[in-house]
Design goal:
- The chain folds into three domains: 194 residues, no CATH class; 129 residues, Rossmann fold; 175 residues, Rossmann fold (3-Layer(aba) Sandwich), CATH 3.40.50.2000.
- Helix content is 45%, strand content 18%.
- The protein contains 24 helices and 23 strands.
- The chain has a seven-stranded mixed sheet, sandwiched between helices. A six-stranded parallel sheet has the order 11-10-12-13-14-15, sandwiched between helices. It has a six-stranded parallel sheet with strand order 19-18-16-20-21-23, with helices on both faces.
């Protein structure tokens, strides 16, 4: 019943369209195209995302949006022309379609091996097929059958055959195909939708699946191939271009030659599409079968947040590699003009709806710095990862623009979790309601890159940079000093006490101290550390992060140390230390006073990890005693292993 309804509706629609004057019919097609543009959000999003992937560095979002609209209008007119084909006579075709390169067909057929006209889904390709049937040579076209609706398939094929074309169903007409070539006939084939059985070649700098049948025929039997295309020039008028036969590269290695020649054809396609972008059919997943993927990390400028995003990206690359998909990672810095702009943007992100997002990246010019806007606009992405609530809205906007998967670490601020494909939350930041959400994965601590391989790699880098450390074979205590944050801070008296404790235990245990600060460490604390430890004989390494940028400082010290002491102000640093497998002692920072302090997330985080046995907690004045207890009483902390949790969550998300 459904098939009959569709069939008779299409037939009735065809009769109505055929009764209208041509200009009115085409205007109707254009109008229908625009109606579909506003109603069919899925295909509009896909078309725009494809255009974005192809032209992100060449055209603005406003231009891409305009091209998408014209694309829908053209598609509506193409459909109208298909239904009007029974009305078209040879003379009418000649009036509407100007053919260039017709002589190339006659020249190619002189070889007596037939001819394959290679085409793509560009312009009014149905009109092109009918035009080819009027070229004074027997012409056949291979089409994909509508298996689900056979009667509709028969109707459409009857329209396609109006110009004298013979229709061969893809997969069913192989014998007729070969026979036609032996009879020196012309066959039309499209190459731009190879599907899962196609051959991957570069297409707009990314692998896409192309159909290889025509190339194989040309290489195996010497069948000449001509690339043809039809371009809408003005209303109902078209220009069809038939290029000279391609010079195929034939080295005898069939698979290699197929890739080489298809790459050449894809380059020809790119040139036409770049010149006439609204003529190509962007409605399908062009790069669906690509073995490449782009991962974009959004950074808010906080090193800890970026490391968490990098961890998710690393797990994502591993999950993609399991599917034999190679991936690249790029980092885009998101800089708001000021705090007020950031807050206004967060509010707008909350109020805006998904169907309003795509094609509106230009609105970011009111909020982001000029350079940041340029980098965001130029990004290409299949997956977008961010950490922190301040840039969650940018993640959501960008993922909608690219039709990409979005992943966020930590709570996304005002935005709901359902706007993202995956939300990763550390346990201290999770409510009972959060645990029941499908798109939420809970980790013990903050995601980080620390594992055995990472520690070994970073240790080697640090030893190569500071070769004098190789001669220090004593036990090592790693000391990580953070800085100030919203609710906690490190005071000078506290750090003085800590330094005294560390120096005392180092002498008692004949141990070395490896120290690094963070970029958040206040200058006066770095000066204090420098004064107390720079010339201390048991401190062979002191890295002041605000003076020396040593990328491997954290990982290298973690790898070389036997025991680790960390300030409790940095959740990221504590997480990395606890994930290293080294016995980890966290000393509590000072809490800020005030009328309204809210929940101290650092305190909650430390208490949870201490209760679960992942860290030891101490005040600055008792660090030496805690270190002594670890070695004398053989107290050990457990190792946090969140990477498997993240990997499983990412596998499901992608």
């Amino acid at each position: 019943m459904k098939e009959l309804i569709i069939y008779y509706s299409a037939r009735l629609f065809g009769l109505v369209i055929q009764s209208l004057p041509l200009p009115v019919a085409l205007w109707t097609g254009k109008f229908l195209g625009m109606m579909v543009y506003y109603v069919d959000a899925r295909h509009k999003a896909l078309a725009y995302a494809n255009l974005k992937m192809a032209f992100s560095r060449l055209r603005s979002s406003d231009e891409l949006k305009r091209i998408t609209k014209i694309l829908f209008q053209n598609y509506g007119r193409n459909l109208i022309e298909l239904f009007r084909m029974p009305l078209l006579t040879p003379s009418k075709f000649a009036e509407l379609v100007k053919i260039e390169g017709k002589e190339n067909i006659s020249e190619a057929l002189k070889q007596g091996k037939g001819l394959i006209l290679i085409a793509m889904h560009f312009g009014s390709w149905e009109m092109a097929s009918v035009s080819c049937g009027l070229l004074d040579h027997p012409y056949k076209v291979i089409v994909k059958p509508q298996v689900k609706y056979s009667k509709l398939d028969e109707l459409l094929n009857s329209y396609r055959a109006c110009g004298g074309s013979v229709i061969l169903s893809k997969g069913l007409g192989t014998r007729d195909f070969v026979k036609s070539l032996k009879n020196n006939e012309v066959i039309g084939m499209v190459v731009d939708q190879g599907g899962k059985d196609g051959v991957l070649v570069p297409f707009f700098s990314r692998q896409a699946s192309m159909s290889s049948g025509a190339i194989r025929m040309g290489l195996k039997w010497g069948v000449p191939l001509c690339f043809s295309i039809i371009i809408r020039e003005n209303g109902a008028h078209h220009r069809m271009i038939i290029n000279k036969p391609l010079e195929l590269e034939n080295t005898g290695d069939m698979e290699k030659d197929v890739v080489t020649n298809l790459t050449k054809i894809a380059g020809i396609m790119e040139r036409y599409i770049t010149e006439y972008p609204s003529e190509y059919m962007w409605f399908y997943k062009i790069w669906k079968y690509s073995k490449e993927a782009h991962i974009t990390l959004l950074s808010d400028g906080k090193t800890g947040h970026l490391r968490q995003s990098e961890t998710v990206a690393r797990m994502m690359q591993k999950a993609l590699a399991e599917r034999r998909i190679a991936s690249t990672v790029q980092t885009v810095q998101v800089n708001f003009k000021n705090k007020f702009a950031a807050r206004i943007f967060s509010l707008m992100s909350l109020l805006s709806r998904p169907f309003l997002h795509q094609g509106r990246l230009q609105c970011l010019k009111w909020f982001l710095t000029e350079k940041s806007l340029k980098d965001v606009m130029a990004a290409k992405a299949d997956f977008i990862v961010s950490c922190g609530s301040s840039i969650a809205g940018v993640n959501h906007l960008l993922s909608q623009d690219h039709n990409a998967k979005s992943l966020v670490v930590l709570k996304p601020g005002l935005l709901g979790y359902d706007r993202f494909d995956l939300v990763l939350l550390p346990q201290h930041d999770v409510s009972r309601q959060d645990r029941s959400r499908k798109r939420v994965a809970v980790t013990v601590a903050a995601p980080n890159l620390v594992n055995e391989e990472y520690l070994k790699e970073q240790s080697v880098l640090l030893l190569n940079r500071f070769s004098h450390l190789k001669s220090h074979t004593r036990m090592k205590i790693g000391l990580f000093i953070g800085g100030n944050s919203k609710n906690v801070y490190l005071s000078e008296p506290q750090i003085r006490v800590l330094i005294h404790q560390i120096k005392q235990i180092a002498q008692e245990m004949n141990a070395d101290i490896l120290v690094t600060t963070s970029r958040r460490t206040p200058g006066h604390l770095e000066q204090l550390l420098h004064a107390e430890l720079k010339k201390f004989p048991r401190c062979p390494l002191l890295i002041l992060a605000n003076k020396d940028n040593i990328p491997e400082a954290v990982g290298g010290i973690l790898g070389l140390s036997d025991i680790v002491v960390v300030s409790g102000d940095s959740i990221s640093m504590i997480s990395e230390a606890a994930a290293s497998g080294k016995d980890t002692i966290v000393f509590s920072p000072e809490s800020r006073g005030g009328f309204w302090k809210g929940t101290d997330k650092h305190k909650v985080f430390i208490e949870k990890l201490y209760t679960q046995g992942f860290i030891l907690s101490a005040e600055a004045g008792s660090v030496a005693q805690t270190i002594n207890d670890v070695f004398k009483n053989k107290i050990h902390t457990k190792k946090i292993e969140d990477q498997q949790i993240i990997l499983n969550a990412v596998r499901e998300a992608i």
